[in-house]
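Give me structure tokens for this 446-residue protein.
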Amino acid sequence: MVAGGETVLVGVSGGADSVALLHSLRTLAPRLGLRLHVVHVNHGLRPDADADQAFVEELARRCEIAVSVERVAVARGAGESPEAAARAARYAAFRRAAERTGAARVALGHTAEDQAETVLMRLLQGAGPRGLAGIPPVRGPYIRPLLDVRRREIEAELRRVGLAWREDPTNRDPKFLRNRIRHDLLPFLASSFEPRIVEALCRAGSLTRALVTELEEVAARELDRLAVARGQEVVLALDELRALPSGVGEEVLRQALARLGERGPLRAWALRALCHLLEAGDPAGPQRVGGVVIERSPTHLRLSRQGQPVSLPERPLQVPGSVAVHEIGLVIEARVLNPSPTYEPPTGPWRVAFDLDRLPSPLRVRGRRPGDRFHPFGAPGSKPLKKFLIDAKVPRWERGRLLLVVAGGEIVWAVGLRRGDAAPVVSGSRLVELRALPLGADRVAE
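Here you go.
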């Protein structure tokens, strides 16, 4: 949990658990070279909130440890419980205090009872493995040194060393599910079925957490292997995702979301949506998870932070000459070639040639427009450009970045895909050769 020598922010509410946490870390600090700083979060929700704050400030003063108080306003979002809103406000306060004090770790006073209550509560709510893994001992900067310690042991130690603590009356309010589990259900299970029910639930949570951790490690390796990242987007091949063992593909998508900034827990509907995306069938429309949009083509999945769509305005292309298209990082070059008996017309998608004398002028480059039609080279006739792109399996999200070269109103080149049927090269033709290069690439005169 600590390497030694770092600053540790200690969250102290004034309750027995957090007072014992401060006592333990203060005892260990000289041996581990820890610098401690107390933080107390005052939610202002109870009449005795200020008395709790004064108690913690006095405790820190007697321990000769610096203390910060974070006063927070608990604002509930739509459908959010008061407990969840208070928790979010509390952790935001911890983050601010850690940044201000330079703390590498934030120590919290969760106990074995907290762990057992969490596992049982989530079991009753129908949680999956991640929920049943309970409270992690370490997550990011947060550490929970007392997570394996029973509350009775904590209170016995505080009495032994003569440390007082505050009781929170809301911890007995039966309107909260956790309190009913703590004061009714767990004692009933202990007396009627299993005296060591707390230890059993903690062990179950620990075993599940080990499996979840292994799943996360496997998925992280697969994400590194499969992901093609570009700015605020991640693209994954569907066939390779579907070939992964059960559960790994969904976890790869979860971690891809996290890389794009969606690190919060996913609701059940979002998990079902991730599973559905990996199923066979026709691609559905775009789906949103938080601020990330997920799109599926027949062959790929794309996760992206939705920004402004790319706009490719029309620009002239001089012959000879070049035009830079900064929006997609390409340069289109045009050069004139004299006929040569040994000339071989290019066949790749990034370089094309036309009979200059039969090619309408002027040349222009632009993006797609509604109603565009395209006559691919060698095809019997034209078709809607949209149908051509679908047949070519171009993902929906790439179509807005497609650059077109137009001559006399006709699309003569879908850049990176195929040349049009106009002005084919014949023996003795005077040629114009077009090529697409990455913006900033070295260009060799030929």
